[in-house]
Amino acid sequence: MIISLDPCVQSENQHDSPSNALAPVFDLGRVQYSLPASLISLVVASDVLAMGLSSNVIVLIELAHSDQVVKVPIPRKPAEFSIYKLFLDPSGRHLIITSLEGENWYLFKSWKKPKQLKTFKMVMKLNGTIYEAILDAEEDFFKSQERYLNPVFTLPERQAITGINSDFFPSIDPKKALVVVITTSRIYQFTGMLPRRSEEGGRVFGTLFAAYREIAPKISELPGNIRYSELHYYTLNSGQSQSLPRDIAWMTSPGIYHGMLNFQSTTDDFIDGAQLFPYPTLSTSPSAPNDSPQPELPISMALTEFHFVLLYSDRIAAISVLDESFAYEEVLPLKHGEIVRALTADPVRKTYWVYTDQSLFELIVGNEDRDVWKINLQKENFDVALKYAKTAGQRDLILSSHAHALLKAMRYFPAARAFAQCSVPFEDVALKFLDVNERDALRSYLMLRLEQTRKSDLTQRMMLATWLVEFYLSKCDELDDLIAASSTMHDIDNVKTGRSILEEDVRRFLDLHKDDLEPDTIYELIQSHGRTDVYLFYAALIGQVERVVEHWILVEEDWVKAIDTISRQSNLELYYRFGPVLMRNAPRETVDSWIRQPTLDPLRLVPALLQFQFAPRDPLSPNQATRYLNHVIFEQLNTSSTLHNLVITLHTSPAAGSNEDDGPLLRFLAMAPVDPLTGKPYYDLDYALRLCSEAGRIQPCVHIYSQMGLWESSVDLALEKGDLELAKLNADKPEDDPPLRKKLWLKIAKFVVQDKKDIKMAMRFLESTELLKIEDILPFFPDFVVIDDFKDEIANALESYSAQIESLKSEMDDATRSAESMKEYIVGLKNRFVTVDAGERCSVCTFHILTRQFYVFPCHHAFHADCLVGLTKEYLPAHALRRLLVLQDEIVKGKAGSVDRSDAKLIDGNTISWQPETQRALLSQNFATPTQNGHRQTNTIGRNLLSAGDRLRDLIVPDALVTVITSPAGWIPGIGGAQKNTLVESEAGKRLEKLRSELEDILASACPLCESVIAGLDKSFTKGESDITWEV
To answer: Which positions does the entry assign to CHCR repeats (predicted)?
Structure first.
């Protein structure tokens, strides 16, 4: 049979792959099983297949294990017992075998043989009675499986019941049930509540049917002359315990009565959308004449999800439930004389079986929903069609058809959504909406297409986003025009609200798709519509704040908003770029924004600050440039000399309206930070002096002179301008140089006396300083001046001098008395003595102290003279050592060598013996240095005399000094005897005695042991690195 297709369906087939289009929905296959006897009845449930043979044998096959076939014979001879029909519950465990003789048997899945149901003979009475029975599958020899069998209801017409089915309402009301009963011409619906607890023996349905003894159930009648009918259900998820059937079909004489079960129905009719499908005419049916084909009644039927499967005497056919069209027809491969029995279905596994008396066929249903989308598309059930579409081409065709249908129905926004999901060309959709002037729907379509476009398709996204911006702006213009033209309308507030919402949508769109837009194009587009608010929002959104600032400055001249815009962002370059113009027009607000941004580089703001150098200023308002610089210098502690110099430049710059007040400049000069290394301010003193001089700022110049240390210049300049107080202030600044201070005060005094020529003023001037007296300023007075004007001051000065003289005289008397007292004390020291024990020993050599000349100190330390010299030289400082060497040289060498041999006289007939060479040899020996490699080093004495420390100590010869110290007074080395001679009285002898006395003062000025303790605090306890005596 050729099925004509709608054009849209034909175009869809072009999208489907060939294999998918040719995949069959139904396929009939013969089961490879040899029947040992004629097949009478077959049932299938939960993959369990049960066959009743004419030989009274039940064949059981679990389809999951089809190689395992179980045969259960019924203990009856074929002549005594003939199988009529088998009934299998959905679980596939309980099987009831009925016979033509009215005898019934029960077979449980695990049993080896069936058991007879003796009380079930009455069931075979075809009188329309409904029985409720309970069977027990427990094997007990003394107990019957027939626990309960009782009639619960009899149909009024007493027609034979051909089908019955019951369902509970588990998800809605678990105690409610629906029972559907059919005869050959009627269908009955019984519903009611079940008892909470079953009655004795497990009775359940008695209560339900008892309600219909007085009232009639819901009955639908389809009269006909057929003697058989079938009832079929279809359940989507039949494997689930609480699943309910969805579809119902009743095969009757006029046709197939079918509909959907509605368990939530509020009436007594639970079949929704009930329809009668008349049987189709089979054109190739052998029983129908070719000229006038007549519908043929099917032998049996089955219900699938989308088809009625009809079984005829020679063929099988499938009719679509959706459009009642032929979906499948196939002639059965029957043998001669083979009789078709029926069509059965597995309600759980959804398998379908055709059986004859000699063969078994399986009808494989696959890809059943292949054409469901196509049928629903023809019916314009687009949602259902889309649900069953399997390929992208099918979905696209459904969406396209749906979109066109919506557009035709003038449902533009849903059409836009549908068009955005299909492949209809973009330009076609745009033209369709523009033709009907639906720009809002077109905007919705563009938005959806933009969301679906890949991020990598930059050009497409940019075009869509730009067009959407144009639509948004145009819509805003339309609302503006509507508001302007409808100012008197009562709904003007609604229009304004709509405009606000649209403007918010514009901002949201720009924020969401800013990466898809080209800024220059969008700027031009926004400006062409005159949307300043959108322009500013977009510029700020993409970070181009400079455009916002330029707008406020160049267009609006709103300086405060420009400053606020700059302050709200983090790009410092905008501060530098727009600083000059903002400083010129809104200086206070500009400086405030600068102060709030501490990361600014003040040096880059210098061009903006220079705007104030010559700009007119309000004398009542502060200089904003210097305010910022003061903040940078004193708060941020900036040390840049450029900024410090700029402050002075601004203070000294001539400006209209300025009164040239030196106060701000002087305050800055006085408080300006100084460099801790140089002690000078960070600004350039020469530059500041030049600016102040050119501007005629005298007080600042004086201050700068003082900063430079040019005190005289500062005082001269102050006096030149007649500022006496300033001159006196600077005259007192060199505190560490009293002569200079006096000189500066004399300059001021000369100015007061000679320039002011006011004697009284000059006298008052003297009271302001203690450095000058009346006599200091008298030379500045004229030669012929009347003394009466300052005679009191002169008298006061003379009295002051007299008092000073008396004070000095008193101090001199005190000093004289102190000197006399000291002389008396010194004389008393000569008579001071120390008692020395006979056993006293030298503190150095430990020999008895009385063996040779010794010294005793107040601390009771005693030393031999030579030991004292050797010990004392170890702690004496370098200058004392050098003096000791000089004394040693003059006493030993110089004096001995200066005695003239020709002056020696005979005394008492003896001749003075003189041996200067011996003394020189001794001195040179003592001064000799160690030898190296057997040769004496030369010219070392000069170098040793110039060295300090240990080298000087090596040059001191204790023996030579001791010889001089221990010699009697008046004795000269080289002259024998101790006779008194004239040389002692000579001047040389006196000088020698003086030198020896000085030598003793150096050596015996302090105890060397006590003094060395202090002098050796910084010396190590060990004498060398090799000393191990200090190791622990």
So the answer is: 596-761
